Amino acid sequence: MQLKELARIIGGTFNNSPENTEVNHISIDSRTILGLPNEVFFAISGQQHNAHDFIPELIEKGIKFFVVEEHLHTEKTATFIKVNSTVDAFQKLAQFKRQQFNGNVIGITGSNGKTIVKEWLSTLLSTGSKVLKSPKSYNSQLGVPLSVWPIDNSYQIGIFEAGISQPNEMEKLGQIIQPTIGIFTNIGSAHGEHFESQTQKIQEKLKLFRNTELLIYCRDHQLVHEQIEATYCCNSLNWGINTDSDIPVRITGKKLQVSFLGKDYAFELPFTDTASVENLCHCIVASLHIGLSQAQISDGIRKLKSVKMRLSLKRGLRNNYLIDDSYNNDFEGLKLALDFMEQQKLKEDRVVILTDFVQTKADAQFYQQVNELLKLKKVAQLYAIGPALSAAKAQFGARATFYEDTRAFLKSDVLEELEDKLILVKGSRKFGLERVMHRLVEKIHKTVLEVSLESIAHNLKVFRGFLKPETKVMAMVKAFAYGAGSIEIARLLEFHGVDYLAVAYTDEAITLRNNGIDLPMMVMNATLDDPATLMKYQLEPEIYSINQLKAYLKKYKRAQQKLPAHLIVNTGMNRLGINPSELAALKEVIAQTEWLEIKSIFTHLAASDDLGERDFTLKQIETFNQFSAELSAHLDHEPMKHVLNSAGIVHYPEHQYNMVRLGIGLHGLEADGIRKGSLRLPAQLKTLVSQIRTVKQGETIGYGRKGKAEKEMRIATIAIGYADGYLRIFGNGNAYVSINGQQARTIGNVCMDMTMVDVTGLNVTEGDEVIVFGEQPTINDLAKWANTIPYEILTNVSTRVQRIFHTD
Ligand SMILES: *Cc1c(COP(=O)(O)O)cnc(C)c1O
């Protein structure tokens, strides 16, 4: 777009007469500015800051064009376009771009499910079209224009979500999105503090669809249906499971049947919980309307493995696990949280800490429903906080204890008595349940490794993209799942339908079994002492030598059980494995026993990440192919075959056989980084600034006086050292950490529990958060500085560092 055209569209005036020039990047956040020559910065002020204050600094960074609300007096040369409101201007610009777009635009609103419907629908439609969608949950007054602004006719479809928190917001969003197809997901039971009623909230949301050609919604939501009928004039298409609707949907087990315009379609459901089925139905109906075939939709559904889990799971004191949902509270939300709780198989004993529902009209009947729900979800104990819940005591059985307010609850000894439980903490914001959470979480050490489960699920999905639908995934969770925390990650992977897990040693597998992980599990390095344990815990050993095989067979035979073996062939790695020359001997052992079930035959590639070793790798695969074919021909059953690790999946997807073994890729680290763009980095190692001091020129810092102050310096001591896994080699300026987005280099030697960094001239105060690795610097950066590989950096984070799992 030309600069002058942009000014015309937003109705702005220039401070000078600039050359006309092409501008094609827009930023509204000074922290994420790119610094490109053709970038325009919209100075949009928030509550905390005036964006205009950052302009001189942005000019330094090379930004030349600004849209502002006040002309600035600065000596620096830049072009300012003045408007009355920069927010309005940005919205107008997005609206203009939308008007130039000729394809279909799908607008989504409703109380729950917007983001999931958007993500899933884009997966379904992306099979045949180029789709632009809102990033994350960008659905606000700024999020929507940010999402819409990149649209142009190189796309075929745009999918955008719109969310509002008060009346009169939707009109604007509707003008920007101008959906041709609308989806109304559903409406929660609370109407929110800014709305008088549910009805008003629905009516306001429907304003998104003023000029929409077709609105898709679920007929089963009676109130939504009534409002659409009453206030709404455009075409609509409803589907329903329980009601008489335009598009009847039938569900039997995992099968979903839809009758669309007189034709019947059947799909396999990847998940069966009510919320997911509803979200999926919206997507299917929209896809059918757009003209996708049954096969295309089925294909897309197969890729929809991931359910977005917005709740977070933390490890608590006394072996408790905590689900923190202490921010909102309505009935739907409680249902979702209890569903999430049900999916966690970590602990049997379920406890809920719940406050009054302040945004909902809650009468006795309502609380009776709450009690029914708790019973249904097998909640053993309820701690109820607030006067309304106390007043409804009669609705709850003996499992409930009541407290007038959060203070009274905190004063009781209950929190200290909870042990070995899965605890859901859920309540309205005003009850301040953070204080309860605070008392329940482990606070041993200030350094934490934060792991985003959602990013791991995302990475799994990226790798599945390389695989045929029928190819199985064995997830490698050895070494504490590469340092990230084996139980939680194994549970996540089980939830997302991986087929197998693999660990290095039997102990690791037992820990997983004891925590409710039921997936088939391979143990790579089981010792000869282990067979009884393997049997007891239903573990499947890797068999890497003929002697080991014989010894195991003896023990399994004695126990009258078949040995579930995974045979590894050594094709050039020269670590563990049966050599191809031993094939005859192997066949002989097999011929003499009836106690063997070969689950799989596999090999491990030595250099799958190095394309310079392509010939060698292909030779390994060829050797494996021959060996496994000859062996299989000799068997009465067909074992699975597998070869590829993460880098192998990327480089040699044509050799995926029946299964792949995915490890480091789940952590976003794929050795040569070719998937860098699409993978996410789930792990962040964080610590805190313990103290800051000023040292004079000539003083030294730390052990051995290795750090020298060449001038007066500000030094921060951070709470991480080599005992946490922060290698000594990172000292003396060999690494930096990020504090408030600024780089601070190490100075002096790394100590056992602490490290000093140079914060001279930086905006840092005591108690600030320090990023040791994450987005910046990355694990790869640290690996480079330490002359090692990312695997070692990640697995080296010591067990005393608490792992925190969250879901964004
Ligand atoms: C660790 C391991 C893998 C996984 O390798 P990544 O490079 O982390 O994907 C696969 N197979 C075997 C035998 C392994 O030991």
UniProtKB/TrEMBL annotation:
Signal peptide: none annotated. Substrate binds at R575, M752. Pathway: Amino-acid biosynthesis; D-alanine biosynthesis; D-alanine from L-alanine: step 1/1. Keywords: Isomerase, Pyridoxal phosphate. It catalyses: L-alanine = D-alanine. Its cofactor is pyridoxal 5'-phosphate. Belongs to the alanine racemase family. Catalyzes the interconversion of L-alanine and D-alanine. May also act on other amino acids. This is Alanine racemase. It comes from Roseivirga pacifica. The lineage of its organism: Bacteria, Pseudomonadati, Bacteroidota, Cytophagia, Cytophagales.
